[in-house]
Amino acid sequence: MIEMFLIVLVVAALIAVETRDLLNSVIMLATFSLVLTFLFFSLHALDIAIAEAAIGAGVSTVLFVVAISKTRRQEE
Asked: Is residue 75 a part of any domain in this protein?
């Protein structure tokens, strides 16, 4: 089970880095954070899982989306 989470983490990180669209990259980073939360939960690190869910998946995703919405996106 843990191996599956680690594989998904690597794939999500690679997609987030290689994606040219910023919004898609932020969505993949949120996915990365949620999978990391489940990984911490499965390792019985509940306090870290709660912090990762709140800060990693919640606050940082909202901040990134707001920052992207405030900038002009160039059409390719």
From this structure: no
